[in-house]
Amino acid sequence: MPDRRQHRGPHPEDHELFAPSQYPRLQTAFCDLCWLLDRGYALPSSLKLVGDRYQLAARQRMALERSACTWEDLLKRRSRQQELQTLHGAPLYLDGYNVLTTMEAALAGGVLIRGRDGTLRDMASMHGSYRKVQETVAAIRLIGKGLAELGVSTAHWYLDKPVSNSGRLAKLIRELATEHGWPWQVEIVQSPDYVLMECPGLVATADSVILDYCQRWVNLTDWLVVRYVPTAWVIDFSRIPHDDENKSGQESSANHSAS
What is the pLDDT of residues 17-36, one digit of tens each? Predict the structure, then answer.
């Protein structure tokens, strides 16, 4: 069946599945999932166990899956994360679809998940095909506005060659860049993941595979959404305390009391 979506907005069931009344259950389930992952249990089996225990719907399970990571992976990602100020006068390498679809979803009122690592991820699935939606141009313009404000010297966009319509999207991005005088380059490559994993420069993505291997990255999309789409629908799992954080806080308090 062809993709006829005109917006990157919420699923019809999202207002029920992610209502404020659901937050406590989702947060507890998220903590349990991270607890299992931290102890070496595999994600598929851990997600099924937690999802079944809390009777979570498929999209709720998807939200947890896209948000969770181990404490070890979190620390590794944080160690390579750079402040946005480092972008001033520097080139930036973008995971094109990852950044763009999240901005489209933010503008369309779709659910965004802020994961354990602090990055924003949308709930959309392209299934090998990208379709321009009504928010696409506005999303690209907001990205351009943000990169200009941050002083990025050049933006290098990478789009997936196997995803249909990548050529049309690349053409649109180039046209908007020319219209606004943005110093952008757009490349269609077989796998942006591999390119960005080996990239020595600053990378913008929320893709967990890239975050686990790239040398340096910035949390661009989260900043863009907070700054330009303050009304976006964000479910935040980044501020939920975990065992290691609680332990560190207790040790710090004990040391402070002893002194």
Answer: 999 999 999 999 999 999 99
Q: Which amino acid is at 69?
A: C
Question: Can you read off the two tokens belonging to residue 106?
Answer: 């933010």
Residue ranges of alpha helices (H) inside the chain are 14-17, 23-38, 43-53, 58-67, 71-80, 96-108, 136-150, 166-180, 192-197, 208-213, 220-228, 243-258
Report yes or no: 219 and 81 within 8 Å, Cβ to Cβ: yes
Task: Domain 82-243: give its CATH architecture.
Answer: 3-Layer(aba) Sandwich (3.40)
Distance (Å, whole) CA 54 – CA 124: 23
Closest CA to 232 of 222, 219, 242, 217: 222
The pTM assigned to this predicted structure is: 0.89
Residue 157's Cβ-side half-sphere holds a number of Cα atoms within 13 Å equal to: 27
Give the whole-angstrom CA distance, residue 132 versus residue 8: 9
Q: Report d(CA 7, CA 121) in Å as an integer.
A: 17
